[in-house]
Specification:
198 residues; alpha+beta; Aminopeptidase; five-stranded antiparallel sheet; 8 strands; 29% strand; globular; GNAT_dom
């Protein structure tokens, strides 16, 4: 799915305020602290709470393996002023059909409109470098900030679905979204300045 360009761990994307890079072992403490926050984990479908160090280590290994194989692209978010300090994660994971976008941002970085900037950069990379046809995403119905990020980055809501997510202790209802290549090409540009942080 992803070209050789993204399959090397030196690959990165720079935006006005962010540095998106491969996650690495030294990110484990930040992931554990930030993604382990109940306010962050609770808005996702897959991050368990409490979050264990073993689960974080497994996530980092899986993300790097997917990046190397080209089956996904999971990137650590850091501010350009501190590229070694992870503040969140954004990624596209392949599967049957279009890849699915997922992301989370640590609570200390909320409200700065950083996630919209990161999502726009990943979408641009996917459609430009990988020649993708479409991207899907979902957001919990009670996560208005995440839905705003998707809508402001060009995604269109396609429905609502309830799925089983053991990390949340049962079924979770979420809104489904899709962004296809034609719509992405039709956008003058995704305006990350107007996207809300999740």
């Amino acid at each position: 799915m992803f070209p050789d360009l993204t399959r090397d761990d030196v690959f990165r994307i720079e935006t006005r305020r962010l540095w998106l890079r491969w996650p690495c072992a030294k990110d484990a403490d930040a992931v554990l602290r930030l993604a382990g926050d109940p306010a962050v984990a609770g808005m996702t479908a897959q991050i368990p709470h409490p979050l264990s160090r073993a689960e974080v280590d497994a996530f980092l290994l899986q993300a790097r393996a997917g990046n190397a194989a080209g089956t996904g692209l999971t990137l650590a978010l850091a501010r350009r002023s501190a590229p070694a300090n992870l503040i969140g994660v954004v990624g596209l994971v392949g599967g049957e059909g279009a890849p699915e976008l997922g992301y989370w941002l640590g609570r200390p970085s909320w409200g700065g409109r950083l996630m919209g900037e990161a999502v726009a950069a990943v979408l641009d990379a996917y459609f430009a470098y990988a020649g993708g046809a479409a991207v899907t995403a979902s957001a919990r119905i009670d996560n208005a900030a995440s839905r705003r990020v998707l809508e402001r980055c060009g995604f269109v809501r396609t429905g609502t679905e309830t799925r089983a997510f053991p990390a949340r202790g049962g079924a979770v209802t979420g809104d489904l979204f899709r962004l296809d290549r034609a719509r992405w090409l039709g956008l003058a540009s995704i305006d990350p300045e107007t996207a809300q942080a999740a």
